[in-house]
Predict the 3D structure of the following.
Amino acid sequence: MLYIISTPIGNLGDITLRAIETLEMVDILLCEDTRKTGILLKELKIKNNIKLVSFYDEVERQKIPQVIEWLKEGLEVGLVTNAGTPLLSDPGWLLVKKCQELGLKYTAIPGASAVINALILSGLPMQRFSFLGFLPKKDRERKKILEKYKMVEGVKVVYESPNRLEKLVGEIKETYGKEVQIRICREMTKKFEEVKNGMDGDVRGEVVVVFI
């Protein structure tokens, strides 16, 4: 069976009992980064001999056949990302789709999600929202997406790196007008968690942008 396991986005205390139980029983663990997952397992004091296998965007397609074979053999396979809930801007959906096609069992082990956490912290109406993930690096493609979602009701959630944040905020204001409300959520669940109202000063660490 395939287990899609959510892990903490910063605070180790956010790991769920079910996630720990699952990590302790899987035979193979598909990881976005085996080194980071190895550190997490060590911090959680999980000592079973899990086989860690690299599973990131560039290799997902080529590794799916092997994963399917493991599942058919009856092995318990887990899937984790570096932090948070897998498949949200991370690999895995192609594997889930293949499991659906072949009738193989799979389940999600829910937990922390940067998207949901940022929405809650934003103080913006969240009855409807659109998750845009990481926007394209090319200016033209990025602006095209921002224009497209301008017509969609509700808040928008974007992942961004600190070094491109100021440019993104400027493009959002240019596209949505001066009345746009922007929240920048950084270091969520960690000691220096902060929610900024727009671009105010230097921003470091992992960032989620919420705007309407």
Remarks:
- The chain has a mean pLDDT of 94.
- The two ends are 40 Å apart (CA to CA).
- The chain is about 35% helix and 20% strand.
